[in-house]
Write the structure tokens for this entry.
Amino acid sequence: MVAAASACLCALVLAATLIGGGAARAPAATGTLAYGFNSQLFAYGTAAADREAQAAAGAGATLERIPMHWSGMQPHRQDPPLPTEGGKAVGALTGPGNPLALIDRAYLDLVARGIRPIIVLGDAPTWSTAYAACGPDPAMPVCQAILGAQLTPDNAHLDDWQRFVSAVAQRYPVAAIEPWNEPNIDWGVRPSSPSPEHMARVACVAHLAVRTLDPSRTVLSPGLADRGFDAYLTRMEKTGARNCWNGYSWHLYFGSQTDFAPRLASRLADLRSLRAAYGDTAPIWVTETGWTTTGPFAVSEADQASALVRLRSALAAQPDVRAMLVHTLRDAPTAQHTASPDPEYGYGVLHEDWSPKPAYTALAH
């Protein structure tokens, strides 16, 4: 099995190299830093897509990052990769509860306002994973361990993953694609968390699916949390996965520290050194960053505004940083974060009632 998986990855990397035009890339020209927000669309219902797009545009955003769960789109293997109701176009879905309709609305509303979506794909359905024997309410201890986890497809189902990614890329041709969010966050802690080598395979399959359709499309690396970033990315790079993205998706947080300049310089130097060691020059996309105004490491709303504006200026001065996405656009409770003392609640630049925090106004100028 190990030999077969290694052969699979080598083939994927070779295909990525041929499609992407080779391993080494020249640095892209320096330009204005693109910026935007992580979406809280799924936290507050299906009627808010237009309002969210309008709010993002009002702050000058040109990017918005939205999640898309494979498990919700194809719950059974016999289902089509996307529930398109017989091939209905984007915006034409009418089936009650169709999870794709919300993505459609968000996509159309964002693109209409000149905002490019970044669609983060992940959360494999159980049937496509090593835990296929686990039902929705598993009793076995091994199944209990995966409750709440976002699983990755196993080697036997990478073809299914490729078909899903291809269907998404075809449906949303303007969007950048990001295969997976923070696969390293529970690495070494939760048994179901993917190894760096397996995540490299997953990323390479996604890159192949998208770039086969259009070699010019942007495919980011999996979005890696800063915690454990270096060790995880190093092992991914050793597989040759640098050919399987054309931008690094990096999550960068500073806790309650708003004097971030020394740490930012150190982390950028570390990433550049790691990147250079494997002959890569792919640009950096900071796809999550921010300061929360709730919880044990909260900052004041004024400090949140000041820090975000200064960070945007600092990243704009870096020739190899292409984007900064603030986490998040709006404070909104989810099933996991319903109380305001939770730090996850307060990252928004809009309050839950859509009134602006100082950060929203500051970023809009």
